[in-house]
Every structure is written in structure tokens, then in C-alpha cells.
Amino acid sequence: MDTSPLRIGYCLSLSGALASNGNTARLAHQIWQENINANGKLLGRPVELVCLDDQTNPKLVADHYQRLLDVEKVDVVVGGYGDNSVAPAMPLIMERKRFFLGLMALAVNAKFNYPRYFVMIPTGPHPNLALTEGFFQIAGQQNPKPETVAILVADAPFSQSPAQGAKNNLARQGMRVVFEGKYPLSTTDFTPYMEDLKKIDPDVLFLCSYINDSIGLVKATNAVGLSPKLVGGAMIGPQNGVVKAELGSLLNGFVNYDYWLPVPSLMNPQIQSLIATYQSRAAQAGADPLGYYVAPLAYAQLQVLEQAIRAVGSTDDAALSDYTRQATFETVVGNVKFGASGGWEQPRVLTVQFQNIDSNSISEFKKPSTQVVVYPSEIASGRVIYPYPNAKRSPMGMS
Fold it and tell me: What CATH number should be reported for the domain holding residue 201?
């Protein structure tokens, strides 16, 4: 019987702009590895993770995967955190006919249509629509319904798909776009953009932004006194504990997407244990202090791999792909079944409103009352406070 290590190879952004999310995934993977090796291993073999740092630089990714396959000779490969860690690997993965399970790459397979690709991001078969569906559903449920929407997005490839999805979703709700603008990723002062938007005075302000711009946009919205009825949408950053702590009560009222939060309908003993272990080690690992956004899905990613390997009894790429395509997997984030293009068969994106935040302490964000799931209804943990100026006030009646 083979007792050599079963080696899983991949790259993550452990340095550079996405290091916090990369290190969060890395720590969740290490906790999974420890649990597997302490509980009978995998096919009788100890699991070894071979993780290379792509430095948030997509130009390094293809060479890293070539090294994993040809020099490290890993048994199986998985995909890293986002599009930039996954898309550059795809031509090599396809050429070698490898099974490939990504973490959060939103729409990588729309371009490649590779049948052995699967992804853990819970955006379902229509990711560009799923990300913002809840935001516009919530808007459409208000009375009177908001009518005008301003769209402000980062001038970058990642924002194109959510922005187009937002336009489709707002049109379904009978709303119309009165402003559409882009800002360069190098922008540090968003005050001029907000001053212009204040003159337009839209009912809804839809933002699609990256980590640093999200911080700048939230600060500028508050500083200028912009008060749309609903604000947020597809902002990357407010899911991260470091960003939450920096912004504190400035986040009150913003509505955004997320993938997992510690609300009653999503809790189970296994994920409770994962989050507790993760948070006790996050600071030392340079990871997100909360871990809610990436850690559950990263852990679930390797649970899916583990269950597929156990079921087929090997790391054969064709067998793993065939099994993963038809199986339902039991994970810390619930049951996962994959559908067309390798995404989840059913989307499960959360729409969340920040409420009742009093301070910049990270402990504020461990309270379920500060991040309220308002959509979908079967997961919701509370109601949206509408319009935005009502939610902006802190619970003590202070702004």
C-alpha cells in the first residue's frame, strides 16, 4: 500500500495586494490538513500541501503550476483565490487534462468552458447576475420603489461582469440609470466623485470596487453627506475584518454581498469549530482576523477534494472530474452540488446590511446584529433599514 504523502499543489497570493485573503485561505487549508492527518489520513496517506506564492502577480501563475506538475510532481492540483490566480493556469491545466477545483474565481470558465473545472464561489450558473440580485431585489421591495440608479465602478476587468449584471437586475426592477462612471484604480481621493453624485442625487448608488477603493468610497460618502436611499452593491473589501475595523461605524447602512456569516441559519458545530480555531491563529498567520469571507469556502474546497478522492479511491483526474460533476458534497458551508460550467448548481450569495456598529473594534463584527443578512429570505437574519440615512445613525442616535 502506498504510504507516501498525498501532495496537493496550488498557488495563492500570500504577498501583494490580496495577501490578506490568500493567507486566510492558506490557514483554512492548513486546519483542514491537520484534521485529515489526525483522523486517519487520505487513502492511508498523509496529506502534504505544496503552496506557492504568486505575489498577487498573474504573470507568475503559469510557471508555478508548471513547477508543481513537472518538478514537485504533485498528485493533484487545485486553484487559488481569485481570477488572477486561476485564469493564467488554465491553458496548462487543459493541455494536461487535469482536474481543477478553484476557490473564488468568479467567471474564469466562461472563457475556457473546460469540463474538468469546478469552483467554490457560490454565485451559481449566472455569476454576474447572482452577485447583485439581492441588492436590487431589496430596492424593488421598498415602497415607494426607488427609480434612479447611479453606477460608479473601478476601471478594471473584474468590475465589468458585476456592472453588467447590475444593469440587468435594475432593469428587471423597472429602475433606470441616470449616471454611469468609472474611476482609475490608482484613485485615492473620491471626494470629487461624491460631490458630483450629490448634485445628481440618485435614489440608489451602486458601487463595484476593490479593497482600497472601497475604503475611500465609504469615507467619501460619509464625508460629503451623500444620502441615497440605498448604497453599496458589489464592493470587495467590506467582507474583510481589517477593512471593517478601519471603517467601523462609517459602514452603517451600506448594503453589500457576502458568502458566509455567523447567522443562525448558516451555523453548525463543524463550522463553529473551524472559525474558533481559525480566529485563534489568524493574527500569527497574517490573515483576516475574522475569516468569514474566505475561510469557510477554502475549508470546504478541500473537503470537496477529499470526498471525491475517497469516493474514486485515487487521484485520477478523469475519475475525480466525473465524480465531482454528479455528486453532492457535505461541507462546512452546507451541501454543495456543481452545475453548468463548474459553478454551483444553485447560487447562495448573501445580501448584507451593516447596522448598529458603534466602534472600530474587531469585536463589533463578531456580533450578528452588526452584519444583518437581508436576502435571500430563507437565510435572512433581520430586515433592511431603509432608507440609508436611517441606518447611518448609530443605535445611540448619533451619526
Answer: 3.40.50.2300
> Do 205 and 327 belong together in one domain?
no
In a domain, 148, yes or no: yes
Reported as a single tens digit per residue, the pLDDT across 60-70 is 999 999 999 99
Of 153, 39, 99, nearest in space to 324 by CA: 99
Could you tell me the three cell numbers for 251? 459602514
Which uninterrupted H or E stretch holds 51? strand 47-53
What is the tally of structural domains in the chain?
2
In this predicted structure, the answer to whether residue 184 has a pLDDT above a threshold of 50 is yes
* Collapsed DSSP state (helix, strand, coil) of residue 396: coil
CB–CB of 62/86 below 8 Å?
A: no
H runs (alpha helix) in the chain: 19-38, 61-70, 83-86, 90-95, 108-112, 127-140, 157-172, 191-200, 211-224, 241-247, 269-285, 295-312, 317-326, 388-392
d(CA 14, CA 68): 17
| 91 within some domain | yes
Domain boundary among the residues 301, 317, 342 is at 342
Radius of gyration of the CA atoms of the chain, in A: 21
Residue 215 domain flag = yes
pLDDT in tens, 371-390: 999 999 999 999 999 999 99
Q: Between the CA of residue 205 and those of 62, 198, 363, what are the distances in Å? A: 38, 10, 29
Cβ proximity of 329 and 336 under 8 Å: yes
Domain range holding 19?
6-122+266-342
In a shared domain, residues 308 and 195 = no
